[in-house]
Amino acid sequence: MQIDIIETTGLGDRSYLVSADGVGVVIDPQRDIDRVLALAEKRGVRIALVAETHVHNDYLTGGLELARTVGAGYAVPAGDTVAYERVPAADGDVLEAGPMRLRVMHTPGHTHHHVSYVLTDADGQTQAVFTGGSMLYGSTGRTDLVGPEHTDELTHAQYHSVRRLVDELPAGTPVFPSHGFGSFCAATPTSGDSSTVGDQARVNPALTQDERTFVDQLIAGLTAIPAWYAHMGPANAAGPAPVDLSMPRPVDPDELAVRLASGEWVIDLRSRTAFAAGHLPGALNFELAIANFVTYVGWLVPWGAPVTLLGETGEQVAAARRELVRIGIDRLAGAAIGSPEALAAGRDLGAYPVSDFTGLADAIGTDPHLVVLDARRDDERAGGGVRGSLHIPIHDLPGRLDEVPAGDVWVYCGSGYRASIAASMLARAGRRPVLVDGGYGDPDTGAAAAGLHARPATT
After folding, report:
1. What is the DSSP letter of 458?
2. Residue 425 contacts residue 263 (beta carbons within 8 Å)
3. Shared-domain flag, residues 358 and 339
4. Are 338 and 201 part of one and the same domain?
5. Maximal C-alpha separation, the chain
6. Are strands 73-77 and 87-89 parallel, antiparallel or unpaired?
7. Are 435 and 295 in contact (CB under 8 A)?
8. What number of H helices and E strands is found in the chain?
9. Cα–Cα distance between 60 and 82 in angstroms, integer?
10. How many domains does the chain have?
11. Is residue 349 part of a domain?
12. pLDDT score, position 278
């Protein structure tokens, strides 16, 4: 048997194609199924089964469309109510595809009806386990996504589910989770790129802590939930529409100027330093970086609001389009391709300075009352911040811009990515930002190295 990993780095997720004797099984596919189809063709396999470990809360599934496209069975946990025909996967069921067998284990915690799939061959030998949002690498899936009233119950269930996997599976069984590679579906940060059941028995908190400690620490460590998550579960239960990866409608400079003047979400995909050096006034900078772009567009743009993309090339716009459809941002208002100078059509460009933490330290030395904005999350801020800085997480900033004092505003975050978004928001509001481009915690160039780290965090 061969297990191929299909990475979706922008969301921190993995899907899998398992193949043997010309037959394939797909686990937890993302919405852009062309990647899966291309891989199946490369392997020379016919996809006979598509299986979901749970109804996902962080992306739209491609499972329903993939199963219909190739004529495969579509397995979804039996306890979930969905609006389409499926193979109900219940605890103890065995799903067959060629020489492969998938034994269903009910492993609640990430959701109520979450299941894991134990892969065995025709002789009953265990080959792997697909754990979805249950057992992750050094962590577990978060337990607060189906409603706060269920969090305590599901956290206890998660503890027992992970222990069941260890109790019932051989220690050498490879573990293949769907979440945990930067996904906000992980309860705590994960570690490593591969693991086995035996490895997890030694390092996973659900297996090294008592139940009360595990529950208390997991719940205490839960971070903010990205805004788009609220829409994914219902859409996946209803059945997502077939994916559309076509290019958005072209927008000319005159129409673009109208959209910018009206305050629409016009997103510039260029690097943060290029944006700072020159951009269309009113545009917002969401750099098309693999690990952050879709997360923060989905988190900050109001659901259903018109979005226009600005790209230097068609390939850049197409890549952004692919990222966005994965979370259901389908109806883009359009796209404009070209340099800022070309798209401005003679209008003036905006710009603002870029510095680093050393530059920030020098500026504070000159003006101790300098306005400094920390755009990180609450859990990051709890570990410290630049002394005297104002803390407003980036996902709260659109509704709290009026809390930022007048004058120049130096903006930082954990890497510079969110700071760039915040700086562009401030610039759109007529403020004068300075982007601190660097990692707060970098040992050589971060806040501590510049003598700015204050602990506990100040406000």
Report:
1. P
2. no
3. no
4. no
5. 74
6. parallel
7. no
8. 15, 22
9. 14
10. 3
11. no
12. 98
Q: Quick one: tokens of 85?
A: 């025909």
Check the CA dihedral 364-296-115-148 and report its sign.
positive
Partner residues linked to 106 by β-bridges: 115
Of 324, 344, 364, the residue at which a domain comes to its end is 344
CA 229 to chain centre: 10
CATH number at residue 11: 3.60.15.10
Enter the pTM of the model: 0.94
> Are 132 and 223 contained in the same domain?
yes
- Do the domain assignments include residue 459? no
Neighbour count for residue 386 (Cβ, 10 Å): 26
Instruction: Tell me the pLDDT tens digit for each residue of 161-189.
Output: 999 999 999 999 999 999 999 999 999 99
Tokens of 366: 């000159």
* Residue numbers of the domain that contains 328: 253-344
Assign residue 327 the CATH number of its domain.
Answer: 3.40.250.10
Length of the chain: 459
User: Where does the pLDDT of residue 368 fall: very low under 50, low under 70, confident under 90, or very high at 90 and above?
Assistant: confident
Q: Which of 344, 377, 401 delimits the end of a domain?
A: 344
**pLDDT of amino acid 82:** 98
Tokens of 137: 């690498």
Provide the residue type at 241 as one letter: A
| Pairing between β-strand 390-391 and β-strand 385-386 as defined by DSSP bridges | unpaired
